[in-house]
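Mods, move this if it's the wrong board.
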Amino acid sequence: MGTSGLVFLSSGLFLGWSLGANDAANIFGTAVSTRMVKFTTAAIVCSIFIALGAVVSGVGAAYTLGSLGAINAIGGAFVTTFAAAFTVYSIIRFGLPVSVSQAVVGAIVGWNLFTDSVTDVNSIVRIASTWVACPLLSGTFAAILYMLFKHLLSYVKLPLLFRDACTRLAMILTGAFGAYS
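Not the wrong board. Structure tokens:
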């Protein structure tokens, strides 16, 4: 791979780093900061499941993003990826919450505007609807699970050390699922 290949690859690496800096902190931040999970454990679990998720399920996200519009030049892929990565990095530096998927979608739409390419409006609507539905559904499921476990634990008296071990295991499993996705 020549120097130009490494330059083009650098934006993908930058986006991967930005993704890890943002999403890994979201996934394991509370577990590590409360010392329920060791940093090393979180880093290993996160690394394994991010790689598995990208290899096993990454094609679905690539297909959805590809439906927004065609980026048919290596330079366009570089610029789009770099724009998304720089946006995520900048927002993280300000200490604000950021969605990598929103940054990538915005970068693709921006590229389409720059090149006078067509952006599939149906894909944008589908993607944006998930940005609204996901927090509502996850909040609903969290409330239901909380009430279920609260009710269950009022009947089952578990020793404190067992509860602690179950909580740690649940944090690791939740982190693994989050990293995979």
